[in-house]
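Hi support team,

I've been running sequence recovery on a batch of backbones for a student project. Most finish fine, but this one hangs at about 90% for roughly twenty minutes before it completes. I'm not sure whether the input is malformed or the queue is just slow. I've pasted the structure tokens below so you can try to reproduce it. Let me know if you need the job ID as well.

Thanks,
M.K.
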């Protein structure tokens, strides 16, 4: 799900209802010349399928790219809660515990989104919150599979 990749003409968002995938594909294309239309398309997808984790990914990515960090944070926090619920985890990431095998599916999305939130907090100059999230990720994903070491290196450069 997180391993999004571009196929010949579209991005593979994983298993999604056709209508939701179509909205996401349209949003990706629209983003290049009309970011507000992209946001609208992604929000349509969210309203129709709030359980579809790639929708949250699209929303927090575009808002981060645009520097709309409050909106990015909101989308990421909501995506984190949805992913945690689907994984059977607490909605509060502070209560998550390391697992013997790095989770896949919603659990991996949750970890990836926690990394995204750490980055968003870093961009908001909230070094304490970013640091707490990165410390949790060091425990939850000791190999750095979801990419948190990159954000940790950025945090070291800022701090």
């Amino acid at each position: 799900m997180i391993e999004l990749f571009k196929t010949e003409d579209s991005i593979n968002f994983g298993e999604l209802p056709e209508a939701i995938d179509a909205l996401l594909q349209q949003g990706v294309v629209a983003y290049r010349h009309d970011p507000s239309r992209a946001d609208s398309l992604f929000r349509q997808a969210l309203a129709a399928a709030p359980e579809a984790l790639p929708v949250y990914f699209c929303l927090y990515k575009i808002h981060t790219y645009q520097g709309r960090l409050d909106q990015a944070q909101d989308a990421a926090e909501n995506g984190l809660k949805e992913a945690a619920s689907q994984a059977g985890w607490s909605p509060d990431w502070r209560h998550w515990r390391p697992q013997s095998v790095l989770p896949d599916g919603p659990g991996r999305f949750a970890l990836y989104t926690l990394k995204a939130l750490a980055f968003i907090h870093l961009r908001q100059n909230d070094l304490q919150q970013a640091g707490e999230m990165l410390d949790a990720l060091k425990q939850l994903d000791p190999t750095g599979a979801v990419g948190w070491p990159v954000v940790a290196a950025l945090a070291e450069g800022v701090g």
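--
Follow-up from support: It reproduced on our side and the slowdown came from queue contention, not your input. Strands lie at 5-6, 11-12. No action needed from you.
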